[in-house]
Design goal:
CATH topology: SH3 type barrels
Helix content: under 10%
Strand order of the largest sheet: 4-3-2-1-5
Radius of gyration: 14 Å
Largest sheet: 5 strands, antiparallel
Protein name: Ferrous iron transport protein A
CATH architecture: Roll
Number of helices: 1
Strand content: over 45%
Oligomer: single chain
Length: 75
């Protein structure tokens, strides 16, 4: 398995990814597009807004495909 932090550091901006981070009591995931990064953190644009992820808390990271298109409303 490759290093998840190295994946984040080398992925092109705009890559859609999921990032799993350690929190008190377990883990949490963020799914979104990579918008910014530096040596300590990255910023993902999720459906709920911008999420800052500390790279020292990253447990897993990988690219994911684009979301499926929304279904047409029922009439």
């Amino acid at each position: 398995m490759s290093d998840p932090v190295e994946f984040i550091r080398t992925a092109p901006f705009g890559t859609r990814m999921t990032v799993r981070t350690r929190i008190d009591g377990g883990f949490t995931d963020a799914v979104g597009y990579l918008r910014e990064r530096d040596n300590d953190e990255c910023i993902l644009e999720t459906r709920r807004g911008l999420v800052t992820v500390s790279l020292d808390q990253v447990h897993l990271a990988k690219a994911v495909p684009p979301p499926p298109p929304r279904r047409a409303p029922r009439t």
